[in-house]
Amino acid sequence: MSATRVPDAVNVLLVEDDAVIRRSVQLALERYGYRVDVTGDGLDGLDAVRAGEHDVLILDVMLPGLDGISLCRRVREETLTPILMMSARGDALDVVAGLEAGADDYVVKPVDIPVLVARIRSLLRRATFHERPAAEPAREEPTAAGEPTTSHRHLPAGEAPDLLTFGGLTIDPRGLEVRLDGRPVALTPTELRLLLVFAENPGTVLDRRHLLREVWDYGWEGDTRVVDLCVVRLRKKIGAERIETVRGFGYKLLRG
Amino acid sequence: MTARRTGPHPLDPRSLRWKITALVVLACAAVAVVIGVLVHRSTAEHGERTGRDLAVAQLGAAEQELSRTGRRPDNASLESLAGLPLPLARALEGSTAPGEYALWYDVKAPNWYWMWAAAPVGDGRVLVVRTDMSATVRSLQLLDRSIVKAALAALAVVVPLTVLATERMNRRLRHGARTARRIADGDLDARIGHRGRARDEITEMSAAVDGMAGALQGRLAAEKRFTADVAHELRTPLMGLVTAVGLLPEDDEAAGLVRTQVGALRGLVEDLLEVSRLDAGAESARFDEVPLGDLVDEVAGRGDGDIRLRLTAPATVSTDPRRVERILTNLLANAHRHGAAPVEVTVTGSRITVRDHGPGFPDALLADGPQRFRTGAVERGQGHGLGLTIATGQAAVLGARLTFANAPDGGALATLDLTGP
After folding, report:
1. Which residue of A has its CA nearest to B267?
2. Which of A54, A95, A140, B271 is exposed most, by the fewest CB atoms within 10 A?
3. Is A110 near chain B, with CB under 8 Å?
4. Are A59 and A86 in contact (CB under 8 A)?
5. Which residues neighbour A189 within 8 Å (Cβ) at sequence distance 6 or greater?
6. Any residues with CB less than 8 A from the CB of B133 and at least 6 apart, and which?
7. CA distance B273 to B39
8. Residue A157: its pLDDT value, please?
């Protein structure tokens, strides 16, 4: 396994009750250069989230103390940190509940470490984009085998317009600030990435596969429910009427 | 699936409806014949008696006339015994006393329907009168005819009524048969149910069949649930195993052996889980517009075996790409494992074919479709036969058609037909 080092350590919090999985995932991620905090209990997990600065949270669904879904919901109330759910079920209920609770993506056990790392990188890319405005060159992630489309390059600093306005919604693609009727809207990196993809193509129907590739870096194996539920969360924050569902195709952002 | 006989067509004379109708017709006809014969007989007797009485009265009057005037009346004749028709003469034999007479009903051609009455009047002479019975006979014939007509009219009413009455019964039975076939074809939720107010043997049989289907379904569900639970419980330890194996050194032979086996175990558990999800019928497709060329290209490119890809006007179809990917992955894995190179993948419009150049599908698979844990390979360790079961199950979720055949010039040929809705 070629463990590529991450330039400045990325902090991962892993909440997983099974000791073997917890330790082996920790060791494996550390080989990739991540700093991994672990805890085996939902309530301890919540404390850990509050205590430390983490770049990514990996939450198991079945947890003692506070289950993964509730933990995810509680975490979302306090922070916008990217959340990856890890489920042993993979059936619709677990996945949908996790995504509804605010998770950005999910993986199904047993998951290969390279797949997990790819998911973490994809989440970080969105988060990085959020934290470092487009004026600064986006931090290069270590690439394993031909980095997937890094679509944040669609909006380089020089070309980005100052402000995009859609009715009461204003998006500042440089400052990465979103305001609704003048008040700032707190979006997770994934939601922001999704909104920016929409804002690049206002009034255009974007199919879910396209969004899945652009924002989540998934190929055909990706689950489009991830997109649907992120759209649901985004609508809650910016107003349901702004993103229109085109049945059988996808979504579009209304121009004004 | 082979086409099966679906019982007699409603117009088939072997249909239960026509059997019941025939029975009703037979019963009606029997009743009509018996009553007709009785009426005919009693009417005929009555007519004969009237004729006899008339003849006897005429004979008496003629005798009186003869004894009073010595001449016979016009309607009577005097004959010698030898001149009489033979049956009448025989009936008169031995009756010579005055007041005795003989009767003979002549129904023979050419003297049809005469009632003869004869009395000896001495000197070997016989006084004979005869009454025309043809009016009585004709009215009897008319009666017969009207009895037949009435019987036919009754049948004309009864037969359609019977057909109509059996129709409901027939329909219930056909519905039951149809439901049983649906259950046999895999729709385990199908039930005959109870419609209407009828409480008869059909209701009883329907309830029994429904009960049987429910019991079988319950047992099947319990077994499937067990498989699903086992596979699910295996997932957590397997995840630890998979991750821990990833930590072992790459260049160690023993670690390589463990890695291979963990991979195989993992494949088996995932396949079992997928099969149980498909069995549970909990899967539903999420449709997207999918350019088949791109999808197949991507999936074929991901596999490690040698694949020859040919795209002929690949269509964009509304389907669930993840499921198409699962089908294709399993077909390709099967081709590589059981077939021989080269493996050819062809996309023509909305149809995908996977063909290898191995020994082809076993006959059992071609006849019954894929069966789990039955690979047709005599030697063990040649895969667990779940791949094609999964492919078939996923195709069913998609509403697509997956068929297995052997190419005329050898090799297995699987065809996935994704005709868009």
Report:
1. A110
2. A140
3. yes
4. yes
5. A80, A82, A104, A123, A126, A127, A129, A130
6. B47, B48, B51, B105, B113, B114, B115
7. 81
8. 46
d(CA A68, CA A98): 8
pLDDT at A47 over 90: yes
Among A31, A92, A109, the residue with its CB nearest the CB of B239 is: A109
DSSP state of B371: B
Pairing relation of β-strands A11-15 and A35-39? parallel
Is residue B53 within 8 A of residue B101, CB to CB? The reply is no
Q: Tokens standing for A247?
A: 């049945």
Could you tell me which residues come within 8 angstroms of residue B68 by beta carbon, excluding any fewer than 6 positions away?
Answer: none
CB atoms within 10 A of CB B287: 18
Q: Which residue has the higher pLDDT, B103 or A160?
A: B103
**Cβ under 8 Å to B: A residues 188-227:** 207-209, 219-225
Single-letter amino acid, residue A89: R
A123 vs A173: CA distance, rounded Å: 19
Cβ pair A223:B240 closer than 8 A? no
Other CB atoms within 10 Å distance of the CB of residue A225: 16
Q: At what angle do helices B201-246 and B134-184 cross, to 10 degrees?
A: 10
C-beta separation of B56 from B119 below 8 A: no
B292/A24 Cα distance (integer angstroms)? 39
CA distance B73 to B374: 111
Average pLDDT, chain A: 82
Residue type, B38: L
Token reading at A47: 């404390």
Q: Note if the pTM is more than 0.90.
A: no
Distance CA A227, CA A127 (A): 17
